[in-house]
Each structure stands twice: as structure tokens, then as C-alpha cells.
Amino acid sequence: MANSTSTTTNERRIIRLPEVERRTGFKRSHLYNLMKEGRFPKAIKLGLRAVGWDSLAVDRWISERLEQDRDDLQSVA
Fold first, then answer.
1. Contact indicator for 41, 59 with CB cutoff of 8 Å
2. Which of these, 34, 35, 48, 70, has the minimum number of CB atoms within 10 Å of its CB?
3. What is the pLDDT of residue 77?
4. For residue 9, what pLDDT is reported?
5. Which residues are bridge partners to 45 per DSSP?
6. What's the Cα-to-Cα distance from 38 to each of 34, 43, 61, rounded to whole Å?
7. CA dihedral 27, 5, 44, 63 (to 10 degrees)
8. How far apart are the first and last CA of the chain?
9. Which of the four pLDDT bands, split at 50, 70 and 90, describes residue 8?
């Protein structure tokens, strides 16, 4: 029997700020500064006072940072 939790985490969905903060380790103000600089995926407007992020875009951003860090470590060694 397949684990339903693993399929849920890989599923594309809109995630809210607390989840983005948990995944990235950054707080709201830093995330918004990164978005303003074009260095983090833009938020999606969900309503008058609600925004969310594409989970795949956030996961891709995290993967790119990890890959960049790995490349930087290899170039130093």
C-alpha cells in the first residue's frame, strides 16, 4: 500500500506564509525583500488579504540554493 503522506508532499498546491517560512527558514520580511529583488518566487494573490505560493516553485528555489551551495563548496575544495 502506498504512503499517502509522500504523495501529498510532492503534489503541487498553494502554500501559505507559515509553510513557506518553515520550508525556507526565512521570516516574512526577508521573503518579501527577496521577492522584491526577483530572487524568490512571487506570491499568488488569493483574495483581498490573502496570498500563497506555488509549492513547486518554492521547492525548486530551495533545490537551486542547495545546488548552488554544493557547487560553491566543491569550488573551494
1. no
2. 48
3. 62
4. 58
5. 51
6. 6, 11, 12
7. 60
8. 44
9. very low
pLDDT in tens, 25-76: 999 999 999 999 999 999 999 999 999 999 999 999 999 999 987 777 777 6
Nearest in space to 31 (alpha carbons), one of 58, 63, 4 = 58
Contacts of 61 by beta carbon, 8 Å cutoff, 6+ apart: 24, 40, 41
For residue 76, the model assigns a pLDDT of 64
For residue 53, the cross-strand partners are 15
Residue with C-alpha cell 521573503? 31
Residue 73: strand, helix, or coil = helix
